[in-house]
Amino acid sequence: MERTFAIIKPDAVKNGVIGRILARIEQEGFRIVAMRLQHLSKREAEGFYAVHSARPFFGGLTDFMSSGPCVLLCLEAPDAIKTWRTLMGATNPANAEPGTMRKEFGASIDNNATHGSDAPETAAFELGYFFRGLEL
Ligand code: CMP
Questions:
Q1: d(CA 47, CA 51)
Q2: What is the residue range of 14's domain?
Q3: What is the b/e burial string over 45-80, where b = at least 16 CB atoms within 10 angstroms of the residue's CB?
Q4: Which of 55, 57, 58, 105 is the best mutation target for the ligand 1 pocket, counting ligand atoms within 8 Å of the beta carbon and taking the most?
Q5: pLDDT tens digits for 57-107?
Q6: Tell me, what's the pLDDT at 51?
Q7: Which residues belong to any copy of the Nucleoside diphosphate kinase-like domain (predicted)?
Q8: Among 3, 26, 62, 83, whose CB has the most other CB atoms within 10 angstroms?
Q9: CA of 108 to the centre of ligand 1 (A)
Q10: CA proximity to 35, closest of 13, 51, 14
């Protein structure tokens, strides 16, 4: 079994599609290990995306991620990291495959509905950033 970290981003929460995204997560066979609705502060978003701090989109990304509540998730499945990234689709919804979360619910590369860890080390950092050991 493998665990990954996922976010239902503020755009998807505002658009009222939390339930539809969670339904797909469950249909695809993930176990939801932990889940929390949280409105990130700008500082919390900056710490989470610190790896992107030198990128030109960092300010806009962290403004957006602190613009409203998110759903934070720990998902478990045999190949959770890759399976969730495949279900999300390409970062830019315009390039995402039909049926993926970003194609169905994302509007732009910034407002792209969901996040998922890209590697085991990232998943460990991201899960530890938001969840306490007891929650997992
Ligand atoms: P996410 O998977 O949450 O990781 C970083 C986010 O930065 C990404 O999704 C996008 O929403 C956002 N982003 C904005 N511009 C870019 C870009 N040019 N390349 C990658 N990510 C971008």
A1: 9
A2: 2-40+70-135
A3: bbebbeeeeeeeebeebbebbbbebbbbbbbbbeeb
A4: 57
A5: 999 999 999 999 999 999 999 999 999 999 999 999 999 999 999 999 999
A6: 95
A7: 1-136
A8: 62
A9: 10
A10: 13
Cβ of 110 closer than 6 Å to ligand 1, yes or no, is yes
Pairwise CA distance, residues 72 & 38, whole Å:
7
Total domains in the fold of the chain: 1
User: Is position 52 within any domain?
Assistant: no
Assigned domain for 61 exists:
no
How much is the ipTM here? 0.96
pLDDT digits (tens, 9 = 90+) for 38-48: 999 999 999 99
The pLDDT of residue 108: 97
Q: The whole model's pTM is what? A: 0.97
Annotated binding site: 9, 57, 85, 91, 102, 112
